[in-house]
Amino acid sequence: MEFFRIKRDIPFMSWGKYTTTISLLTFIVSVFFLFTKGLNLGVDFTGGTVMEVGYTHSADINKVRNVLVKLGMPDVSVQNFGTSRDVLIRLPAKPDMSSAKLSETVIAALRQDDETAEIRRVEFVGPQVGKELVENGALALLIVSLGIVAYLAVRFEWKFGVSGIIANLHDVVIILGFFAFFQWEFSLTVLAAILAILGYSVNESVVIFDRIRENFRKMRKAPVTQVIDNAITRTISRTIITHGSTQMVVVSMLLFGGEALHYFALALTIGILFGIYSSVLVASPLLMLLGVSREDIVKPEKKKEEAEAIP
């Protein structure tokens, strides 16, 4: 489907040295904030108290959150759990107060505001569990990254695999840089969003890489820059339709999804925007820097055909 067709190729590769420079600087700044400020890890990673509170009527999440903010707990997480009458509260650990004392203080304040509030369960998430979640999350990112490299290398050629994974990791580091700089809460849902962005971004790279490979067969006398510019230009309509539709859904979650989905949707919003940018203006210029050529595509195919022709 195409809403419009661009007749002239847009000279994306002529901007390559500028976009890669901007990306490198942004990457360095993000790494700097990650090392200096660090991530504001949520209760899932740092440990804390998890409370399930029930009401006889639909709970007002904002009202519950305001009560806890007045207690001096601005970084608390409040969301519905199961039904509209049940509320799940995640409280960060406080060194000067035990988990039992903390839960008693919270339920007392909630009952003062609404006497129907009742504790259903209280759990303490220890720091050891949080440490394991951090390690498992990092391992998940590593496995996904290696899988993407292997897929692109088998599907195309190693130069495509290297440029694709650098562009995708660029997106991940940029997202983490935003969370480090603004000290937004980094939870398991945000980690899930980052893993989703890795898959989403590589899909866009595969579409462009596939068109580049096709152009190498068709445009035999054209220079590499023209081949890549043509491939990106021919996929622009598809890119706008796909990412525009996805971004509308994600922005809707960001604006109307409430506190529970806020940082998840925020990570997706940043990731989609930079995913488009990196696939077009980072991965493709990196192919140029790695010296991709027509022989990288044509020769392996000829060898495969010759091998299949041998009886």
Kindly describe this structure.
The protein is an alpha+beta fold and 311 residues long. The protein has 2 domains: 12-41 and 129-305, Up-down Bundle (Multidrug efflux transporter AcrB transmembrane fold), CATH 1.20.1640; 48-125, Alpha-Beta Plaits. It is 69% helix and 11% strand. The chain is built from 10 helices and 6 strands. Helix 1 (16-36) packs across helix 9 and helix 5 packs parallel to helix 7.
How would you sum up this structure in a few lines?
The protein is 69% helix and 11% strand. The chain has 311 residues and is α+β, with helices and mostly antiparallel strands.
Secondary structure: number of strands: 6
Percent of sequence in beta strands: 5-15%
Query: How would you sum up the global shape?
Result: elongated
CATH architecture of the largest domain: Up-down Bundle
Series of H and E elements: HEHEHEEHEHHEHHHH
Q: What is the CA-based Rg, rounded?
A: 25 Å
Tally of discrete structural domains: 2
- Tell me the number of helical segments per DSSP (H or I, 4 or more residues long): 10
**Largest beta sheet: strand ordering:** 3-4-2-5
Q: How far apart are the first and last residues' alpha carbons, in Å? A: 43 Å
Q: What's the CATH class label of the largest domain?
A: Mainly Alpha
CATH homologous superfamily identity of the largest domain: Multidrug efflux transporter AcrB transmembrane domain
Weakly predicted, low-confidence segments: 303-310
The percent range for helix content is: 55-70%
Biggest sheet features:
4 strands, antiparallel
- Secondary-structure content class: alpha+beta
The third-level CATH topology of the largest domain is Multidrug efflux transporter AcrB transmembrane fold
Q: What is the mean pLDDT?
A: 82
